[in-house]
Amino acid sequence: MSDTKKPEASLRPATKMVHGGTMRSQWGETSEAMFMTQGYVYDSAESQEARFNGEEPGYIYSRYANPTISMFEERMALLEGAEAARGTASGMAAVSSAMLACVKAGDHVVAASALFGSCLFIVSELLPRFGVECTLVDGTDLSAWKAAMRPNTTACFLESPTNPVLSVIDIAGVAEIAHEAGAKLVVDNVFATALWQSPLALGADVVVYSATKHIDGQGRCLGGVVLSSEEFLEADFKDVHRHTGPSLSPFNAWVMLKSLETFPLRVKAQTENARILADRLAEHKAIERVFYPGRADHPQADVVARQMTGGSTMVALNVAGGKAKAFALENALKVVKISNNLGDTKSLITHPATTTHQRLDDDQLAAAGIGQGTLRLSLGLEDIEDLWEDFEQALSSL
């Protein structure tokens, strides 16, 4: 395969997302090829031995690597500004494999308490089964991070903005605390996307994404990606990924390669819809509170200004009247659809306390800032006036 005329790293994101990572076969195809293969053949037994020994370049098995997945990984690394990336079967495969690569029995993890339900399960329930202790802290309080660190702390984990109420954690501040203790910082950057926040530039060691969200962005494929230094991915992550098998499908990687071509356009338009709708919803009497990065009333407005270059495609709101009124609002919407997914071209809404965070107890919900009237809204690409009219009629029914 040829890979000549690759784009320079200095090019802007939109250009990288069209051309980055492309490898062409001898046929010179315009669109990236999809290599739907499990295995590979060798010219000789000696060649096969050399590849397994790492002495000869080439592919061995698609659980390890695949040309289509390699193109996706390189394009993601260009977008994130990372040395390297590894694709995974889902966002949770990215989170679990990245965390497993950082710890062993006897180690300690510090994590923000405001996490997606499955992420919380990984750090507070799964890892402890294998002898890894976990301390949960208020992620927005740097003194809490510092107080929680121990001599055996090897990893810190956070989402920023958080799911679902979009609290923004000082990534640079947490990274400094983690590094002073000799720990790595793993950041889930899904709600900001690589377009509006760069955790690696802020000091994070590892960034994870659910590629199911904005990267695919059209509700079709599951996928995930882990981005970090080549050293971490080779020395710590490689064996976990190879031998536990959270492998990305070549077909899904191909779909996401095509999606990345429009990623900047989609995210910018969705973010603008979110910004406008957040401001309008904040003025409505049926809404107790709106959470959106970039608004002056955001609880961490100073941190947002420091580390984010844009808001988010997500909006969180508290509806007056608790669960009953929140459900009534969801049910009255016509354009916006009820779904627990996010990052789609279609606008989606969900009730976190009964869906994405339903396994959390009352104390955990409170720690995450989730009430019975909390709704999480993912903005799509519809006309903003249609979206606002949809909310107006739904809110009037309350």
Strand content: 5-15%
Uncertain runs with pLDDT below 50, 5 residues or more? none
Q: What spatial form do the alpha-carbon principal axes imply?
A: globular
Mean pLDDT: 96
Major β-sheet profile: 7 strands, mixed
Structural class: alpha/beta
CATH class of one domain: Alpha Beta
- CA gyration radius, whole angstroms: 21 Å
Helical content stands at: 25-40%
CATH superfamily of one domain: Aspartate Aminotransferase, domain 1
Number of helices: 15
The CATH architecture name of one domain reads: Alpha-Beta Complex
Kindly list the characteristics that best describe this protein:
398 residues; Aspartate Aminotransferase, domain 1; 12 strands; seven-stranded mixed sheet; 15 helices
Task: Note down, in words, how this protein is organized.
By secondary structure, the chain is of the alpha/beta class. The chain has a seven-stranded mixed beta sheet, with helices on both faces. It is built from 15 helices and twelve strands. Helix 7 (171-180) links the parallel strand 4 and strand 5 (184-188). The protein has helices spanning 13-19, 45-52, 67-80, 91-100, 117-129, 142-148, 171-180, 193-196, 230-244, 250-260, 263-282, 301-307, 322-332, 362-367, 384-396, and strands at 84-88, 108-112, 133-137, 153-159, 184-188, 206-210, 224-228, 287-291, 314-319, 337-338, 348-350, 374-378.
Q: What does the secondary structure layout of this molecule look like, with pairings?
A:
Elements: H1 13-19, H2 45-52, H3 67-80, E1 84-88, H4 91-100, E2 108-112, H5 117-129, E3 133-137, H6 142-148, E4 153-159, H7 171-180, E5 184-188, H8 193-196, E6 206-210, E7 224-228, H9 230-244, H10 250-260, H11 263-282, E8 287-291, H12 301-307, E9 314-319, H13 322-332, E10 337-338, E11 348-350, H14 362-367, E12 374-378, H15 384-396
Parallel strand pairs: 2-3, 2-4, 4-5, 5-6, 10-11
Antiparallel strand pairs: 1-7, 6-7, 8-9, 9-12, 11-12
